[in-house]
């Protein structure tokens, strides 16, 4: 197989940080925060960012891509052969953002793929697809673009904001430049679909209706104590499993991982994952208290921060791992970082 690299990442966080006290009165009075598992699941981060009122997913990706343009030149981005995107809340429900992103960035890619099943593990899934296509001769350069924009839209609705779950998400966007090269080689990837859990994450509306039907109720995630218990159990198991599988494949012990980068639903998951992989906190990057739960943008945002402040250095092995939704998908990818 031709060597494929995650050459660089660039990210964008919208607006000024929003502090926890924005939610404090709502969380304290929220019925959703009454159960013990809810308190574990929805322990509030100190800050998060919200997408602007008129800011689209395409706007977010364009702003995230500016770092790549500055470092690699506009010609590199305009010459992308494969564009892979994931948007948490599509600007239009009938199609993804791929076409709009390609146009905004001046691309004429041979492949434009909008992925929706990847959820919080979408960056890993995007790397997997990009790697397969580039290695098979479908181009020399791919862009994986992730927009998380649910916090300032879905979770900031007046009624939903009263729920404990609303204080956890934050918005952000990220792009990853994937090239046919040996600069920062992708060492191994594992993606798994757990179809039996598909549909366990639901949209709750009171009074009940389908998402597209008119009505007065606001939609939010349908969490119950039973569902939370299942999500906690699945997430605690799946993320270490896929990371260990990649380690076995590339001949690396988990405690030799130089940097672990995961999605970041809450502090409990973050602690349990690094303990399962026998890693100290200093080798597991997260921005939870600065950004909250960034969903699919969490991995590339955390990686970008680690690169920018020197936490990850040339030659280090970075393990990226995440699970999605209520546990219907999980993925891990290892990269030997070549430096920026």
What is the helical fraction, as a range of percent?
Answer: 25-40%
Largest sheet: 5 strands, mixed
C-alpha termini separation: 24 Å
SSE string, helices as H and strands as E: EEHHEHHEHEHEEEEEHEHEHHEE
Instruction: Report the oligomer.
Output: single chain
Q: Average pLDDT across residues?
A: 94
Q: How many alpha or pi helices?
A: 10
Number of strands: 14
Strand content: 15-25%
Structural class comes to alpha/beta
Q: Report low-confidence residues grouped into runs of 5 or more.
A: 27-33
Radius of gyration: 19 Å
Cross-sheet strand order for the largest sheet = 1-7-6-4-5
Would you write up a description of this structure?
This is 3-oxoacyl-ACP synthase. It comes from Mycobacterium paragordonae. Pfam families: ACP_syn_III (PF08545), ACP_syn_III_C (PF08541). By secondary structure, the chain is of the alpha/beta class. It has helices at residues 24-28, 36-41, 57-72, 74-78, 98-104, 122-135, 225-250, 267-276, 288-291, 298-308, and strands at residues 5-12, 18-19, 47-48, 82-87, 111-114, 141-148, 172-179, 186-193, 203-204, 220-221, 259-262, 284-285, 317-324, 329-336. The chain has ten helices and 14 strands. The strands form four sheets. It has a five-stranded mixed sheet with strand order 1-7-6-4-5, sandwiched between helices. Helix 3 crosses helix 5 and helix 7 runs parallel beside helix 8 (267-276). The protein starts with a strand and ends with a strand. 49% of the residues are buried.
